[in-house]
Design goal:
The chain folds into two domains: 7-292, Alpha/Beta hydrolase fold, catalytic domain (Rossmann fold, 3-Layer(aba) Sandwich); 294-451, 2-Layer Sandwich (Alpha-Beta Plaits). The strands form three sheets. The protein has an eight-stranded mixed sheet, with helices on both faces. Helix 2 runs parallel beside helix 10 (273-285). The chain is α/β, with parallel strands linked by helices. Helix 4 links the parallel strand 7 (117-122) and strand 8. The chain has helices spanning 54-57, 61-71, 98-111, 125-135, 162-175, 180-185, 194-201, 204-216, 243-252, 273-285, 307-314, 316-336, 356-369, 397-408, 418-422; strands at residues 7-8, 14-15, 23-28, 31-38, 44-48, 75-79, 117-122, 140-144, 230-235, 257-261, 291-292, 294-304, 340-344, 349-353, 377-389, 393-395, 414-417, 431-439, 442-451. The longest helix is centred in the last third of the chain and has 21 residues, at 316-336.
């Protein structure tokens, strides 16, 4: 989907970006670190997710909705720790220290142009965030479901035994890539593909190596040195990292506030993002805003004129071949004009664009592209608000509006709404006034326009 900022909608809630932000790279020495920036608010939050591929999380609806919630009240920076996602792999002959990971974070913060970060560390990212906050200026520190040390010690009885940690390391060695690890850290749900997420996040060898790093560090000496306002959040019935770990951190950081949030998952973004992030927003901004997971975008709907009788005339095999050719050419035009395919309807496409001028040019380009196939297209373009549905679909009146305009268009015609026409000023596109009309299922009368050049 296209990348948009935020606007205030009726009722005072924030309209969220549905897009995965573009991926950029920061450099720390020879290491390249993938990061993303979204949101246009004054508060700058840097999410330090640790051994969690946030670039991939942006592509998973269950995770991305939580990240969009964070970005609704901040300028949000997310990144992949080295060894994860699109960042460079680990050099297993010279494994990074905690200090190395802190300097990786410093490189991302500098590359993103962040001047006064609120650090939000989760999982093993909590240790990196704490170490950074001790070394560099930060505005505030948030820690969720993290730990000071994993293994038991004489003065740390809440830690795990070596046997438990050895067994977990063996699980990483035997099971990573099967989806069992991420489903162990977060309650499974139907709209998440855990095996795909694991396989795309990192290799099995690197997963084991990252776990070894996580079980070795001990940030207990750093906790009393934190001098910024700190919020410690822990899911109350966390099945993987007990609440005692969060309590220890909160008691060790001067003035830290501890909040237990109902829930069981270690990776909170999958099922418990909103109650956790509500606490973050209250701590960071002093208030809580209503959140609408919607955005304003341009929708293009295309359709093949008289597709049913044409299919009947050609027969299934010839029609299928022609549709494949149509789809290939349509996708080339979508790519050339910066669109994002939402879905293929069988004989047409629903595509999202940053602006209606690009949508119109894509539609006209597609019409020319398929002309030698003997196909005639029609198209509708509208600008409005949409809501994400699952991984690859959107809903909302804007979708139906574009579809109704397309259905009303004649062969070779692009019809637009008044909202779309007005946003084309300065793009050299001409229109003919189509007057006002009603559109099936959409209340009221609407001014429509036909693209003429």
């Amino acid at each position: 989907m296209p990348h948009f900022g935020y606007a205030m909608a009726a009722g005072g809630y924030r309209v969220a970006v549905l897009a995965a932000p573009s991926i950029e790279f920061a450099e720390h020495g020879d290491t390249h670190l993938a990061f993303q920036v979204t949101g246009e608010n004054a508060t700058e939050i840097v999410y330090v997710g640790g051994s969690f591929a946030t670039t991939l999380a942006w592509e998973e609806p269950a995770y991305a909705k939580g990240l969009r919630r964070l970005a609704s009240f901040s300028r949000l920076v997310t990144y992949d720790q080295r060894g994860m996602g699109y960042s460079d792999p680990l050099d297993q002959t010279a494994m990074p220290s905690l200090d190395d990971l802190v300097e990786d974070l410093a490189a991302v913060i500098a590359a993103a142009g962040v001047t006064e970060p609120v650090l939000f560390g989760s999982h093993n990212g909590g240790a990196v965030a704490v170490a950074y906050a001790v070394k560099y200026p930060v505005r505030r520190l948030v820690l969720c479901n993290t730990w000071a040390r994993l293994s038991v010690d004489d003065d740390y009885p809440i830690g795990f035994s070596d046997q438990i940690l050895d067994n977990l390391e063996e699980r990483y060695r035997r099971e990573w890539g099967q989806g069992r690890i991420v489903d162990w850290f977060a309650t499974p749900r139907a709209d998440v593909a855990p095996r795909r997420f694991e396989l795309a996040s990192t290799s099995r060898n690197q997963a084991v190596a990252l776990f070894r790093i996580n079980r070795e560090y001990d940030i207990r000496p750093l906790l009393p040195l934190v001098r910024v306002p700190t919020l410690v959040i822990h899911l109350e019935d966390n099945l993987n990292v007990p609440r005692s770990f969060g309590r220890y951190i909160a008691e060790s950081i001067p003035g830290a506030r501890l909040v237990f949030v109902p829930g069981t998952d270690q990776m909170f973004l999958r099922n418990y993002a909103f109650p956790v992030i509500d606490e973050v927003e209250r701590f960071v901004t002093g208030s809580l805003t209503l959140f609408a997971d919607r955005m304003i975008t341009t929708m293009l709907f295309t359709d093949i004129v008289d597709s049913t009788p044409r299919a009947a005339t050609l027969g299934d095999t010839a029609w299928s071949t022609m549709i494949d050719d149509h789809n290939d050419r349509m996708r080339q035009e979508i790519l050339a004009h910066g669109g994002d395919e939402v879905k293929c309807t069988g004989d047409g496409f629903l595509v999202a664009f940053d602006n209606p001028a690009s949508a119109i040019r894509c539609a006209r380009g597609a019409m020319q592209s398929v002309a030698d196939l003997g196909l005639e297209l029609r198209a509708g373009v509208h600008v409005g608000e949409v809501t994400r549905m699952g991984r690859s679909d959107v809903s909302g009146l804007a979708v139906h509006f574009a579809q109704r305009l397309c259905a009303r268009a004649g062969g070779g015609q692009v019809l637009t709404s008044e909202a779309a026409m007005e946003r084309c000023e300065g793009y050299g596109i001409s229109f003919e006034d189509g007057g006002t009309t009603t559109l099936k299922g959409i209340p009221g009368e609407w001014h429509i326009f036909s693209v003429t050049g």
